[in-house]
Structure to design on (200 residues):
């Protein structure tokens, strides 16, 4: 991972407030989805919250795999689980946490259209300016690597994997995480747990 990578660490409350704003944007736009589709795994938490805020219990899942590690992707995303609910003739809101490359969003939107959805809109919490897809709704633009509260341990695990366990690079990156907002105690706990898991 290049040393110039900067982290952004939104809190649960910050994310919830951004989702409140997004739900308001969707309502003001007049879009009333029949089905909300969360892209596994990062799209699940915001999709569940939007299901509540938009008073829509029709929540489905789709899985597209792309990321290998922190700021590392494979060439192209692959659809590993098709949409879990029939979308033919329906208006669909596709939810993910971030539009980064945009390739997964493009793949999922094409899949949902192929399955017969009449209208598809995309919502993400964050948008990165190099994404090939601009979401219909997003709350914040950033160039940073975002660490969501539901993936903190996973991010630390990927840093350890990237740099081979303990060492200066792991310490540098976890220090950057702490400066970005993750508690030092939590980082220490996860480092210990991960290293213990690997030594089992």
């Amino acid at each position: 991972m290049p040393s110039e990578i900067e982290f952004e660490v939104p809190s649960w409350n910050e994310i919830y407030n951004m989702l409140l704003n997004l739900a308001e944007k969707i309502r003001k736009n007049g879009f009333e989805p029949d089905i909300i589709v969360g892209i596994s795994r990062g799209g699940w938490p915001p999709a569940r919250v939007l299901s509540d805020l938009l008073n829509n219990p029709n929540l489905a899942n789709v899985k597209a795999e792309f990321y290998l590690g922190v700021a590392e992707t494979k060439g192209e995303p692959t659809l590993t689980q098709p949409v879990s609910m029939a979308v033919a003739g329906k208006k669909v809101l596709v939810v993910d946490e971030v539009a980064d490359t945009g390739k997964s969003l493009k793949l999922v939107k094409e899949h949902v259209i192929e399955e017969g959805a009449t209208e598809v809109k995309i919502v993400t919490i964050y948008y990165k300016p190099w994404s090939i897809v601009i979401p219909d709704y997003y709350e914040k633009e950033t160039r940073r690597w975002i660490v969501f509260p539901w993936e903190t341990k996973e991010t630390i695990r990927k840093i350890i994997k990237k740099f081979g366990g303990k060492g200066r690079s792991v310490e540098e990156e976890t220090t950057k995480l702490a400066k970005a907002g993750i508690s030092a105690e939590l980082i220490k706990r996860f480092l210990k747990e991960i290293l213990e898991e690997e030594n089992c």
Remarks:
- Residues 149-199 form one domain.
